[in-house]
């Protein structure tokens, strides 16, 4: 995102090859990320109770949709709305704005680290000497 934004002097017409290339990388990432989120719920449900495969799928899917509904909507909207617009509808304009959208994802590793620390009960722990 930073490379695209800084290389585009004309926010409407300047082009950068990364703007389109990165959109193609978003597709498998979003599919993987959605599946990984579902698997987390699947394993949690598997540990909590013994269920048969079909029943486990239903319980895990309900848990996933209930607890991560907005994240699911986010991923589905990106795959069904933003990706087609970025690849096929916007034509030869708007790489700067694609870069701006990609910059919004800079916070993702820090959000993930926060969740990991919470799960490890380390987020608010102070060093004891």
Average pLDDT works out at 84
Structural class comes to mainly alpha
User: Total number of β-strand segments?
Assistant: 0
Task: State the end-to-end CA separation.
Answer: 42 Å
Strand content: under 5%
Contiguous helical run count: 6
How many strands, what sense, and barrel or not for the largest sheet? none
How would you sum up this structure, described in words?
The protein has helices spanning 2-7, 17-48, 53-67, 69-89, 95-103, 108-119. It has 129 residues and is mainly α. Helix 2 crosses helix 3 and helix 2 (17-48) packs antiparallel against helix 4 (69-89). The longest helix is centred in the N-terminal third of the chain and has 32 residues, at 17-48. It is elongated.
In short:
The protein is mainly α and 129 residues long. The chain has helices at 2-7, 17-48, 53-67, 69-89, 95-103, 108-119. It is 74% helix and 0% strand.
Secondary structure topology:
Elements: H1 2-7, H2 17-48, H3 53-67, H4 69-89, H5 95-103, H6 108-119
Helix pairs in contact: 2-3, 2-4
Which features does this protein show?
129 residues; mainly alpha; single chain; 6 helices
């Amino acid at each position: 995102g930073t490379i695209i934004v800084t290389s585009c002097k004309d926010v409407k017409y300047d082009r950068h090859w990364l703007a389109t290339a990165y959109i193609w990388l978003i597709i498998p990432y979003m599919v993987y990320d959605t599946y990984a989120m579902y698997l987390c719920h699947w394993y949690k449900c598997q540990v909590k109770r013994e269920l048969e495969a079909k029943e486990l799928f239903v319980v895990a899917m309900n848990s996933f949709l209930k607890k991560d509904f907005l994240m699911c909507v986010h991923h589905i909207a990106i795959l069904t709305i933003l990706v087609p617009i970025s690849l096929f509808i916007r034509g030869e304009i708007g790489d700067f704005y694609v870069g701006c959208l990609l910059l919004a994802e800079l916070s993702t590793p820090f959000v993930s680290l926060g969740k990991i620390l919470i799960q490890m009960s380390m987020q608010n722990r102070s060093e004891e000497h």
